[in-house]
Records
---
Amino acid sequence: MSPAQVPASEQVEIDLGDRSYPILIGAALLDAPGTWAGVPASTQAVIVSNTTVAPLYAARLRAAIAARHRSVDLVVLPDGEAHKDWQTLNLIFDSLLAKACDRKTVLYALGGGVVGDMTGFAAASYMRGVPFVQVPTTLLAQVDSSVGGKTAINHPLGKNMIGAFYQPRLVVCDLTTLATLPPRELSAGLAEVIKYGPIADMEFLGWIEQNIAGLLARDTALLAHAVKRSCEIKAQVVGHDERESGLRAILNFGHTFGHAIEAGLGYGEWLHGEAVGCGMVMALQLSQRLGLVDEAFAQRVTALIARAGLPVVGPRLGAARYLELMQVDKKAEGGEIKFVLIDRPGHATVRGAPDGLVREVIEHCTQGA
Amino acid sequence: MSPAQVPASEQVEIDLGDRSYPILIGAALLDAPGTWAGVPASTQAVIVSNTTVAPLYAARLRAAIAARHRSVDLVVLPDGEAHKDWQTLNLIFDSLLAKACDRKTVLYALGGGVVGDMTGFAAASYMRGVPFVQVPTTLLAQVDSSVGGKTAINHPLGKNMIGAFYQPRLVVCDLTTLATLPPRELSAGLAEVIKYGPIADMEFLGWIEQNIAGLLARDTALLAHAVKRSCEIKAQVVGHDERESGLRAILNFGHTFGHAIEAGLGYGEWLHGEAVGCGMVMALQLSQRLGLVDEAFAQRVTALIARAGLPVVGPRLGAARYLELMQVDKKAEGGEIKFVLIDRPGHATVRGAPDGLVREVIEHCTQGA
C-alpha cells in the first residue's frame, strides 16, 4: 500500500457548534489527498513553517494541497520560542499583504507549537479572521495545540500574553513526521501526555507507565493511542469551557511553575514540555504538602516523568523570583497565585496556597540543581 | 437637575446572545454613577485615551468608575490615525503587564474611533480576552464603532488589516462630550450618519436633510436621534451577520473608495469620515453609471454630503493608484474589487464593476481637486 492509500488510523471530533472540526491522527497523512478534503477551497493559501521543518515537509504539503488552491505560498519563520514575538508574527502579515491575500485565504501551520500558536494568531487577526489548518509536527503540538484554539505570542514581560481563542478548520497529526523529532522534543511532548493521567484518567496513566519504552522508541501505534487519548481528554475539558473561565484551567497542571522556569531562564533555554514536566513535579509536591495526595502518588508520577527523559529538578532561581514570575502569570487573579493541584489521583483542582509552603516546595524541588 | 441625575435619554440593545450589550445615549452620562452599573466589577481597570481627550475627560471618567474597581490606571496614546499601529498598541500591553493586570481587568476606551479600535483589539488579545467598555467621544465613533465589535490596527500595506471581532460589555455615548469636537470631526461623523439613508432608510435620509443645520449646531436632542437611529440600523444589519460574511458589507458603503483615499494620501491626511463622505459620492457615481440609480438620486445625496461640510471631490491620485489600493482592500476577494453600490434608494448591494467604468468615475470625481 502506498502512503497515499493509508487511511487515518484515528480521528477525534472536536464539537464546538459552528466551530467544530476533526483531528486526523495516523501515519503518512501528509501526502494522502483525502486528508485535505475538508479544507475550504480558496484561491490563495499560505503555508507558515520554520527553518527546521520547512526543508523537511513544506514541499510535500504544498504538493498535497495544490489541488485545493490556485496559489500556495510559503512563509518560513526563524525557529524557536525566542522568536514567538510580534516582529516574527509580522513576517506573516507582511507576506499576506504583499501577496494581496484576501479574507478567504487559508493558512496552514506546519511545525511545532510556536508555529501553530503564531499562525493561529495571525489567522485570527488577519482581516479579523481567515481559515487555518494545523499540521503539528511535534508530539507536544499534536497533543497540546490540536485542541483548545489557544493562539498567542509572547511579550517581554510574559509568555502567551497576547493572543486569541481561535479554532482551526482541521488538524492533521501525521505521526510519520515525528521520525525527525529530536529526542529531547519527544520527551517534552510526553510531558503533556503524562499530564492527562493525574488530572483526569488513572487508567491512561497506567497505560503510559506500561508503554513508556515503546513511546520513546516512536512506535506508531502507541503514539497514535497516546495522541488520541490526550486529545479526547482535552476535548472533553475544553468542550465544557471553551474560553477558560474555570474547569479548563486544570489543563495547566504543571504550567504555573513551568512558566516561571521558562521566563526565569529566558524563553528557549528549557523546552516548554521540559518546564511543564518539572512544573508537574513541583505541583505534586505542593499537593502532597497540602495533604491532598500521599507521598507514594507524588513519587509514582515523578518517577514516570523522569523515565520519559524529563528534568525533575528545577533551576535555582530563588523562591522570591519564582513567586514574582508566577504573580504575573494568567492564573494569578486579583494578585493571588492560583495553582492547579491534584486533590485525588485522576482529579485536579485550582486553588491558592500559603506562600510559605510554596517556598518550601521551590527549595525542595530545586536542590541539587 | 444636576448632571448626575440626568437619565439616559435613549438606549439601544445589541442582541448577540451571550455577547449582548446596551448602548446608552444621552447628555452628561459620564458623571452619572448609574451609567456604569452594568460594568463587571474588578480589582483593576485601565482607561485608554489619547493626548487630546484624556485632559478633557479622563479624570471625570476615573472618578465615576472608582467605586467599581480598586485601582484605575490611565494609558495615554498619541492622537491620530497615524498612530493606529502595533507600536502604539504595544503601549497598552506594556502598561497592562507592568501593572500585572489579570484577565478580569476592565479596559475603558475613552476617545474616538482610533482609541476604540486599538483598545478593543488590546482587550481582545490581552490574555486572549478581557472585558472592555467603549466611551466614544466623537460622533463618528458613537455611530460607527458602537455596534459591530470591529477592532483593528493598521499595517503599512493596508488599513484595519490586523484585528478581531470583539464585543464590548457596554457603550456609553455621552453627547455632552461632542461639545469639544472640532467642526471637521463633527462633519466626518455625519458622513457615517448620512450613510444609513441611502443603504437602508430613506425616511431617515429625509430627516437628516431637514435637520442638517441643527445637527451641525450640535443640538443634543437631534444628535441623540441621529446616533440612536444609526446604531439601530447598524445593529439590525450586524445582528444578521456578526462576522461580515455577506449582508454586513453594505455598511462599507463609501469605504472602498474611501480607504483608497486614506491610504493614497497617507493615513491622517483626510479624516476617515471625510474619505467615506467622498467615497460615497464616488460609489453613487458608479451606481448611476451602472444604471442602478438615477442622476437625481445621486445628486440629492451628494448635495447632503456637501451640506454636512464634507469633501465631494477626491484627491487626484490617478485611476491606476486608486485601483491598486482598492485591490488590497478586504472587500477584494479572489482579486476582484467588490463595491457597495445603491441599487435602489434605501437599498445597497455588493458587486464588482468593469475597470473602465471605475476609471471613469475616478476621473469624474477627482477633477478640479
---
Amino acid sequence: MKTEILSKEAISRLEEIVGPSFLFLDEETRNYYGHDETEDYVFPPSVVLKPASAEEISAILKLANEYKIPVTPIGGKTGLSGGALSIHQGIGLSMERFNKILHIDEQNLQVMVEPGVVTQTLQEAVLEKGLFYPPDPSSRGSCFIGGNVAENAGGARAVKYGVTKDYVLNLEVVLPTGEIIWTGANTLKNSTGYNLTQLMVGSEGTLGIITKIVMKLLPKNTHNVLMLVPFFNSSQACEAVAKIFKAGITPSALEFMERDAIDWTLRFIDGVSLNIKDEVQAHLLIEVDGNYPDVLFSEAEKITEVLEQFAIDEILFADSEDQKNALWKLRRAVAEAVKSNSVYKEEDTVVPRYELPKLLEGIKAIGNKYGFKSVCYGHAGDGNLHVNIVKGNMSDQDWKTEIPKGIREIFELTVSLKGTLSGEHGIGYVQKNYMDIAFSQTQLLLMKNIKQCFDPNSILNPGKVLPDSL
Amino acid sequence: MKTEILSKEAISRLEEIVGPSFLFLDEETRNYYGHDETEDYVFPPSVVLKPASAEEISAILKLANEYKIPVTPIGGKTGLSGGALSIHQGIGLSMERFNKILHIDEQNLQVMVEPGVVTQTLQEAVLEKGLFYPPDPSSRGSCFIGGNVAENAGGARAVKYGVTKDYVLNLEVVLPTGEIIWTGANTLKNSTGYNLTQLMVGSEGTLGIITKIVMKLLPKNTHNVLMLVPFFNSSQACEAVAKIFKAGITPSALEFMERDAIDWTLRFIDGVSLNIKDEVQAHLLIEVDGNYPDVLFSEAEKITEVLEQFAIDEILFADSEDQKNALWKLRRAVAEAVKSNSVYKEEDTVVPRYELPKLLEGIKAIGNKYGFKSVCYGHAGDGNLHVNIVKGNMSDQDWKTEIPKGIREIFELTVSLKGTLSGEHGIGYVQKNYMDIAFSQTQLLLMKNIKQCFDPNSILNPGKVLPDSL
C-alpha cells in the first residue's frame, strides 16, 4: 500500500476531475478531514477531494486503481470506530456536496436522498410531509445519512423500529473499480439475486461509495409518553428491560444510563436539572409512541406495574414537549459529556437483552481486575451497551498495555453471552484486531474474499474492519 | 458439471456418512424429490440423502467437492421458482430430518429452530408461549422455515411486519467447502463485519446449507379486524392500496384478488361461499391487528372512508373466528386453485405499491399482445403481484415461443416501474435467464464472484439464480 504523498501527475489529474476549487492540499484542511469522533486519533489524508457526482467519484476511483492510491470516504465525521480516518493517507473523499434530498415519494412512502444529508435534516423534511424516518442516532444533528448506512447506525428508536438497514431499499454505489451500479430495487420485498444492498449496508465504506439512497418511510406517529425511572440498583435496571418486553410492550425507546453518565451530563449541558437521590445508581428512559393517547397511557401503566417489582424511586413522567426535549437532550449529550471528562475508549457491546445484567456486572469485574473505571449507558432495549472506559488517573503505560487486555475480556464476555463486538458503531480502525473473538479464520477469510471481489487492488478504505493479521 | 449417475465408490462413501437407511437410489424416491411446486418440472436427483446433522452435511459436501458432484438442498418442496430441482442430477439433500424447534427463548423473544420445521408448526409453537412469528407464506402448512430463509419468503403479513429476512438474526451454515460457521450473533443490532447473515438469506441454497436458524419474535397481538372489499374496477382496487397507507394506516394484511382468482378458488375449496355481484372485478382483503379493539375499529373506519372514494360494493366484515378462517382459507388456496385449472407459469412481480395499477394494466395489455390470459392476485400492500399466466387453449407452440417474450415484457415493465423480478419466490431455475433485465453485467459478475468465494467448485445448487450466459 502506497502511503507517501501523491505524485504531481496524480494530483493534477484529480484536479481535472473535481475542479481546482474542490481539491485541497493545505495542512489545515487535511487535518480537519483527518479525524472523526474516535478517541483522539488524527490521520490526515494526503489530499482532500470534494466531488459532486457519482461520475466524478467513478473517475477518481479508476485513477486510484491506476496509481494504487488509498481512498477513504468521509461523511459527517461523527464516527466512533475510525471508519473515516485516512490511516494510509492517500485521498480523503468528503461526501459533503452530496447534500440533496432528491425526492420524497409520498405515494410510496419512500425517500431518495444523497449520502451527505444530515440525518436530522432528513427526519425533519419527511416529517413535514407527515412521514417518519425512525433511526435516530444520538449524533443525528451532524452525522450524514450515508455514514448511517455505511455503519448500519441504530439509535434510541431501534428497539421498536429497527436500525438503518431496515429502511434501506436500494443504493446507488460506485464500486471501487469505478462502475456505478444500483444494488437492488425500490421495493419493500425483493428475492432477486444476492442481497447486495444489505452487503453494502454496514460495510463501512470498504466495498463501495454510496451516492444515492432509497429508503422506506412510515406514517408519522402523533403521540408519545416519556418517563424517566430512577433505580437504586443498576443490575435491576437491566433486569427490568427484558421484563417490560415480556409483559407484551414494545417501547419506542428504552435507554439505560448509569449514575455517573447522568451526573456528568447534567454538569455538561445547560438548562436541564434533575433532583436525584444519592442512592440512585441508574436510570431507564422509556418512551412509548403511537396515535392513540389512551393506548399509550395504558401501556405506560403496564410498564409501571413491571417497574414496581424493582427498587425504584419516583418515576418522572415528562408532561410537556419542553420536558420531553430536555430529557432527550440529556440522553443525547451523554456520550459527549462522558468523553469531555477524560481520555477514554468507547466499546459498543451488544448482547441479547436478557443478558444485560450479566454483561454489566462482568464489565465492572473486568474493570476492577485491570484497574479501570467505566461509565455505561446505551440502548438497553436492544441489549446495546456503550462502555466508556475513562483513563482518569491511570498511567499512560497501563492505559497502553492493560486496557487492550481488559477490552479483549469484555468482548470475550459479550461473545460468550451470544452477543458481538459492535451493535451500531462499526468495527472500523479501532476494533478490527478484536474481530478474531467474534469470528473464526474461515469467516474472516470469507469476508476478505468478498472484499477482494469488490476491490481487487484494496484501494478503498484499506486497513478497516478486517484484522491486520488476516 | 458432472451429470451422470454417481460412481459406486462415491455412493458407498455417502452411505457411510448418512447410514444405509437415509440414502435412496430407487426411482420412486428420486422422482418424489425431483419436483417442487414449480410448474410441471421434474428433475430427479441421482441419489437422495437425508442427513441429520451439520457434521454429516459437512462430510457430504467435502466428498461432493472431491468428486465434483452437484448437491441440491431440498426443503418442503413448495418452491415456485425451482430452487430445489436437481437440474444437474447428483445429490438431492433433503433437510426433513432437521425438524426440531431447539429453543424458544421467552426472555429474549427469540427462537432457535432447525430448517426442516414446517412454518406453521413454528408459528403455533411460539404462539403457545404468547409469541408471534409474523411471516406467513400461503404454503405455511407445508413449507419449511429453512426454505423460507433460503428464498426470503414473505406472505400476507409482510406489509406490516416485514419478510423472513427481517426476523433472521443468525444462521448456522455449512459452507459448500464443508466448514460449519455461524453468520452473525443473536442480537437485534449488529455492525460487526460484513452482513453474512443477510447475504445467506435469499441466496436460494447456492451459498451454503442452513442447519440452524435464530430468529427474533414479537409479543403476540390479541385482536384483529378482517374485511373483504369488492371493487367494480380492478385498477381502482390497486389505487386504493396506496391511499390507505397515505391515510396513515398500516394494515397487517392487504391482499388483492382478481375476479377469476376468487371465482376459481370458490369452486376449488369446500365450505366457503360468497355472494358476489357480476360487476365485481376484484377484491381487497384487508386486516388490521393490535391489542386494542377500539383502535382497530377506528382504523377500520378510516380505511372504510378511503374505500368509499372508489366504486365498491358492500364491505364484508368477518364477524367471527370461523368467518375469518374461511376468508383466509380462500386467500391461501388461490394459488393452488388457479394452478389446478390449467397449465400455467407464475411470475412474482413486485413494484413500489403506487405503481400497481400501471403494472396490472400493463400486464393485461401484454397478455392481449401475445394472446395469453393472466390471473393476478397477491400482496398488494407490498406491491407484490403474482401473475399466473394460464395456458388455456393456447397451442403448445405459442406457449413455448410467445410466452417467454411476454414474460420478458412483463419484467421489463416491472423494472421500468422501479420494481424487480421476484418479491418473494426467488429466481431459482425458471427466472434466471431474465436476470439481465434487472441487473447489468457488472452486477451479475459481482454475484458470480461472490458465489465463487463460497463455492469454488460450483457444487452447490448449480444452475440457479444466475443466468446461463454469464
